[in-house]
């Protein structure tokens, strides 16, 4: 038996497709693999993401738009950690992901890497960006 693990992102505001498109635009080797929407009469909001599968830098992620509201959303205690090859790449990703979101740790040198920053993007997903 072969097992596979993927990060699954649940969006509560109908933002799954917008978020997926945004993320794919930021990373190399990134693409939307599959995307299905809720149809008429299905148990979800018609036209919203029933299931999305996308890759960022070769890593698979899944997402969907939740119909029911939940008492929770994304939290910084679970974040996506990105190791960048260049300072320019780190700065570009930090600026794009922070726009409309929030800064959790400003760009700086914290002793464990050359440069590091932590943001929550406009969808609430937390990203740690590191330059070793």
From TrEMBL:
Taxonomy of the source species: Bacteria, Bacillati, Actinomycetota, Actinomycetes, Streptosporangiales
Entry keyword Transferase: yes
For this chain, one GO molecular function annotation is:
methyltransferase activity
Q: Which Gene3D superfamilies match?
A: 3.30.720.100, 3.30.720.110
Highest taxon of the source?
Bacteria
Gene Ontology BP annotations: methylation
**Keywords attached to this entry:** Methyltransferase, Transferase, Ubiquinone
What name does this protein carry? Glyoxalase superfamily enzyme, possibly 3-demethylubiquinone-9 3-methyltransferase
InterPro entries named in the record: 3_dmu_93_MTrfase, Glyas_Bleomycin-R_OHBP_Dase, PhnB-like
Using the record's annotation, list all stretches that form the PhnB-like domain.
3-129
């Amino acid at each position: 038996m072969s097992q596979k693990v993927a990060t699954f992102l649940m969006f509560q505001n109908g933002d799954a497709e917008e978020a997926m498109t945004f993320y794919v635009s930021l990373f190399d080797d990134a693409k939307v693999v599959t995307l299905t929407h809720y149809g008429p009469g299905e148990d979800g909001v018609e036209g919203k993401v029933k299931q999305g599968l996308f890759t960022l830098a070769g890593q698979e992620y899944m997402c969907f738009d939740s119909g029911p509201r939940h008492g929770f959303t994304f939290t910084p205690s679970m974040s996506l950690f990105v190791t960048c090859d260049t300072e320019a790449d780190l700065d570009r990703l930090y600026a794009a992901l922070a726009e409309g979101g929030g800064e959790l740790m400003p760009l700086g040198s914290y002793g464990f890497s050359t440069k590091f920053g932590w943001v929550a993007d406009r969808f609430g997903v937390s990203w740690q960006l590191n330059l070793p």
